[in-house]
Amino acid sequence: MREMLDEFKEKPKVSEEAEDRLETALLTKKERRAKNKAKFKERLAEMSGMEKFKYLVEYYKWYLIITAGLLLFLGSLSYVIYKNTRPLIISAAILNPVDPTEVNDKPFFDFAEANGIKKGHQLVSDIYSQVTIEEQVNRHSDSTSHANALTMQSTDDYYDIIITDQRGMEYITLLCVIYTLDSTLDEDNYNSLRDRFYYSSDYTEPSIATKALDSTTTDALRKLGPQNIPVGIDISDTAFAKGLNVGYEKIYLCVAGGKSENRKRVNMLLKYIFK
């Protein structure tokens, strides 16, 4: 039997889906959106409540995922900005605690609560160990890194105060990290606390600068110069100092920030400590 001519052969049927795509392709964008919307409603009308929910979640899942991710990112960013821009309670560096894990910052929060600045404010309280000239001379890596970090952080009046022992205070005086008390305390604090002042020498004075840099111990530093510069306040016997739990008996407070906002917080704290 002869083969059927091509023109009489049965043509393959075009699927409804293909016809629908072809028809849709010929529509304008507006007509296409209207058709898709109608089909969407038609599908939903045939579904139960749970089926509708599952379908909508599946249909919009990428929109939901992207929206949730964006909201989470914006929320986290807003929190970080808020956390880092809150006013300060105080910005403090604590040097050479015997056991850094035992240091207690509760006295700072007690100060904030007493002055009504706890809510909506932040506390900066950093710990630096082995910040002494002895440790530096021995070239302990931790000592060098801590001293360098403290110096870098203090360049723009980042800290208001530094809590330290005597060895730490002499070393940060040598590093020019702190301000003299006569340039930072208000008149009331300066006059009422003078009997608590700790005096050191100006190690930048040309006559002793070279010897100061060559010194290997705190005692050697103390023998240089007239020791007539007020650089620290003895707070050892106060409840505030004892509450910090730094582990050494003689505790000194130094002023590390020279801007007006630094001085304001420092003087407020001193009035609280010696109230």
Automatic annotation (TrEMBL):
Name listed for the protein in its UniProt record: Uncharacterized protein
Source species of the chain: Eubacterium ruminantium
Domain of life from the UniProt record: Bacteria
Membrane-spanning intervals of the chain: 62-82
Keywords: Membrane, Transmembrane, Transmembrane helix
